């Protein structure tokens, strides 16, 4: 994923009641780990808290967010993207202060990352950022053109053409922004699913390893106990055969052996129950595997949707580039027509001056 944890704390997680917008609803029954993550691939910071297969918090930090300490051990912040308010209850005031300081640092880092991202976007796509100011500047210059252009009429057409191009360009930019926003939301959901899946998969692997290790160990012990039982029975039979009948000492030895056998049988029974319980846990593990497969399928569907959104964004960018090229060609043609008209107007003024001189003579 490319995400690295940079700070973690233990706290009780709450969310604001969406109905009243005043009461707090507990998201976790006990204190859970709340961590700050940094995604180097997307240069974003997030606060994540997961318990089992449930994500309590998945909040992307933006420069507009503010963490507010409402009491000595409680703080909160609003996430407009998730349309909720998160609250954290800490065990000590020092933990709350540490979390608040970390929130401020990450918020500042998110602001710097956004500024760098915007600068990089402007360098990669200069036409999207300078096209509108250029159009405004050209329109402003055209408004100060000589009055004779207005008399001949091409300026009105020039204004209408540039205005239509500007509206089309703005529409294309808004459409691409919307598609990029949808892709970003889809990617966040995808990462949340993947994070939950990895957490569940780790628990599943640990449980499988523990169950397999326990089964092998208990089987080994069971075989040893069975061998010991057979050995003791053989000894009992041998002693009875040697004594020719149970004497006083033989009777005591037999009682001791019988007691040992009973203890071993009880122990074997207990081990059998443990092995039975381990087999029952295996059935639970199979259910976890089924849930993991379903999560993998959802992850695949999200990846497919994200790829489709990326394809649509790429198509829209190509369409926008083509539109910009056509607009530039149209502007060149309009400029050529304006230059020709200016030459004709200049010739017309000379002709008028010549006619005026002839008339005056």
TrEMBL record:
UniProt GO cellular component terms: cytoplasm; postsynaptic density
Subcellular location field: Cytoplasm; Postsynaptic density
Keyword Cytoplasm: yes
Keyword Hydrolase: no
Pfam families xref list: WH1
Alphabetical list of InterPro entries matching this protein: Homer, Homer_EVH1, PH-like_dom_sf, WH1/EVH1_dom
Sample GO molecular function, one term: G protein-coupled glutamate receptor binding
GO biological process, one term: G protein-coupled glutamate receptor signaling pathway
PROSITE patterns in the cross-refs: WH1
Coiled coil feature spans: 208-333
Domain named WH1: residues: 1-110
Location, primary (coarse class): cytoplasm
SMART domains in the cross-refs: WH1
Record family assignment: Belongs to the Homer family.
Protein name: WH1 domain-containing protein
Protein's organism: Oncorhynchus tshawytscha
Organism ancestry: Eukaryota, Metazoa, Chordata, Craniata, Vertebrata
